[in-house]
Amino acid sequence: MKKYTWRKLFNDVHLWLGIASGLVLFVVCLTGTIYTFRDEVEQLMAPEKYHVEVPANAQPIAPGKLIAQLEQELKGKVVNLNIPEDKASTYTVGVAPAPSTEKGPKGKGGEQGKGGHGGGRPATYYVNPYTGQVVGTPESATSEFFGTVMRLHRWLLIEGDVGKIIVGTSTIIFTFLVLTGLVLWFPVKRKNWKQGLKIKTNAKWKRVNHDLHNTLGFYSSILLLIMALTGLCWSFEWYRDGLSSAMGSEVFKGRREKPMTIASAASTATPEDYIQQTNLLLPYSGDLRLSLPTDDTTAVVVQKSKTGLFALAASDKVQLNKHNAEPLQVEKFSDKPLNEQIVSLIKPLHLGNVYGTFSKILYFIACLIATSLPVTGTLIWINKLRKKKKPSKATRYGATPVAS
């Protein structure tokens, strides 16, 4: 009887966990692959919403004038304005419903929500910065498709917590699959370790399939672990809280952060002043996002981020006095402790845009490999089952054993 070794244990764990979760992981990895280049695909399908022709010797409309024009046309209050560094890109504008002047019963729309715009969610518009013309909104058949892809990725289109739990549990299993796969990648004989780094394309299809599973899984293992460990933050609150405690910084803290409170006063500052002050405090080229409060006691928040092929998906943040544009707080990403930097990058680490287009390409390839692993792994398992059931040569030819 053969001795049951640690390697055999890891092999069995890898095999049966893979069989148990293979279909769910295939769907999750496939949708993750499709979602990687969502922004690029949407821009490709509707370029008129994202790009404009720059008129000769023209300058964009001053932000203050543009905001006033949009508020008059859209009958609302501009609460955020995205100004890209690329001069041929449209601005993204968030417009909240205009404050209601009518008083009504509590809970029936009579009270204004926080921020003084009736509590309505801001609508997003794409605007030509040279003409002020609204050229589109995020809603489209493409965005609806990617919305479905995301819901399939997050909870398999199953409403409630059931789908989220299934995906989260499968992601935990996927983490163990990657770890046990790394153990199995190392050959029994150390001198043969180089075999796991290449695919023997001139071999039989079974060997090629094995190499595709073994070699590609090894090369993508680090990125797959990052995807799995960060993805669990959306699945389980206990995991998110545990990671926050272990890292010493709250995951998704930015969702609950509120702008600073200031004293009410007469306002003399303009959006141009906010931009000028931010550029003085953060003297580099990049995209700007202005968050403009609708009341007189909330600070203006301006976020600035660098762009480019290898740009880090992190922004610096400046809080300014709404009334005179004086700086209240400057938060530079580079000044944050390492643990806070890592935690603040959870989302881009999962989505793949942590280092711009460069990391997106790597993530797309890794996701594509991850999608193939359940397929190649299942084929390996089926081939082993057939090998076990294959009759011996003596049985095939009807030979009878000779008694000794």
UniProtKB/TrEMBL annotation:
The name this protein goes by in its record: Sulfite reductase
InterPro entries named in the record: PepSY-ass_TM
Lineage of the organism: Bacteria, Pseudomonadati, Bacteroidota, Cytophagia, Cytophagales
Species assigned in the record: Pontibacter korlensis
Domain of life of the native organism: Bacteria
Membrane-spanning segments: 12-37, 165-188, 216-239, 361-382
Gly residues: bias regions: 112-121
One Pfam family named in its UniProt record: PepSY_TM
Entry keywords, A to Z: Membrane, Transmembrane, Transmembrane helix
Protein's UniProt keywords contain Protein transport: no
UniProt KW Ribonucleoprotein keyword: no
Stretch list, region Disordered: 94-122
